[in-house]
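Please review this one:
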Amino acid sequence: MRWLTGIALVVVALVATFYGTAFYAVGNLVAAARTGDSIALSAQTDLPLLSRSLSKQIVAVYLDQIGAARRPSVMERTLVAAYGATVADALVTKLLTPDVLAQALRTGRFPGVEHPTPGSEMPPLTRLHDANVLELLGRVRTVNPVQLAIRTSDRTDAEHYAAVVLHRSGFTWKLAGLELPRAALRNLASSLPVK
């Protein structure tokens, strides 16, 4: 019976450490976003994963926009899916400079990108500043054993859902993705060429 209690305590300690380090990383990200500290944000960001995350989302919405205007051929869908990241790379590269990322996380708006309608921007990361541990736990979604998504939006429906994705590397967590609301993604994808 003692060994069962010992195992339970070890599991509780591991889970507490897992989420505790993630919440600590979120706190650091929020603090850096509030002050606009682009250097600290850069140090806490896995840029290749973040870039891939945004490109993938923009390409998916881009395909939806093409599909709304006309039915894309199987070959066209395959080409866009295979090489779509390169189509969105120029846009994503502009969005992920340290200063632009710092402003976007602080305000919810990407500078230089028009936000014509409410909901076409992401909720700022700084809104998590006053969240307590229980509220943060309610916002956490485990993506896989090394990734957590923490919802920044108040709403959970697909159209308005927004989250930051953290990736665990060793004992640290880094910003590895932004899950943007559909309206924000449509806004970003609209700047890509539609044929």
